[in-house]
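Usage

Read records sequentially. Each one opens with the input sequence:
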Amino acid sequence: MTAFSTSRWPLSAAQHGVLAGHQADAGGAAHNVAEYVDIAGPVDHARFEAATRQAVAEAEALHMRFAVTGCQDVVDIRPFRLETVDFSSSPDPVTAALSWMRADLASPVSLADGPLFRQALITVSPDRALWYHRSHRVALDRYGLFLLDRRVSELYSGFEGEPFDPLRPVVDEDVAYALSAGWRRDRRFWLDRFADVPMPISLVEGTAAPSAGVLRRTVSLPRTALEDWSEVASRCRTSWSAVVIAAVAAYLRHVTGTSEVVLGLPRMCRRRTAALNVPCSASNTMPLRVLTPPGATLTELAGDIAEEVKVCQPHERYRSELLRHELHVPRLYGPVVDINPISYELSFDGSPAVAHTLSAGPIEDLAITVHGGQAGGGPRIDFDANPALYSSDDLTVHQQAFLDLLETAPAFA
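and closes with the structure output:
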């Protein structure tokens, strides 16, 4: 294994934002991201560890340290050992494994000393294992986790493939963007777009600090749900993702009576950049203003949202935390709507596997994540709420009411 030289680099804009949030996080765990990959088949532990060791060595972002303000230090690769945990003898192995993972997810991370990540292979039966990996968001965002999934799957299955691209071009590209005319144009676009400083609308009153632990409600829908959303989308010549975002806006209008909402829309920010094949932190949450007049149909809202995304997308790299700072507001948007149109299918030497997100980072209010169907199945919707704002009963009521609205969408679009 080749270690890379110790040196000091500048921070990317995404890292600046994460570090600012980390410093304000009293518990130190709100910016952990994690998932587990459910592997349906026996796993060769030695071969799996070799695959993870190589992938981790290639992922330079996992080996940074942040002891000095405003920069990051590249350190030599430290010995990595894949932890093994066995819950196969537990009365409920999966529940025990999930409890173990959630407890680890709440653990604070030292950005100065590391490590920034942890991985474990958890056995729940002789022919089923859960691969857990957790990272601080300064190193990996959710797309970074996916890249790691894909690389380990490839290596374990015996394909050498292409290693990850280096991290330094990503940092240099981001630094150059921050000094460019493009950055200034993007800044002016957002300042003009939010010149009147709209107040974010929520389903609850009050605000709270971003939370590491969340309340979650997950529901899987039949394949016909995607077909219904696609039918509505075809009427306004857009995608079903715009229909789902429109349904969230319509639900907020229904509950609050508001005529405009500001939603958070996560963006990968990797298109046509050096970060496309680099496990790192690059994502941003784009604020999306949506007019919700009383008489607007779901079709009309979906069309307006598609147009708004089209207009705003070229400016998605400008950091939302910078805009919030410039506007002098504690919050920029209300609920976050995260659309994953495709559920990526993984295979570990022929054994199918599905990735499940445990945390994508801190939750300020409410995050609604919609996962597209996998292998002909239906979509899955996760409702994640800040427990300082929502009770378990609140979340159950809102989720069911929203699902009822989605179910009737084709008839009232």
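Summary fields computed downstream for this record:
- Residues 1-5 have pLDDT under 50 and may be disordered.
- The domain at 183-343+362-412 is CATH 3.30.559.30 (Chloramphenicol Acetyltransferase).
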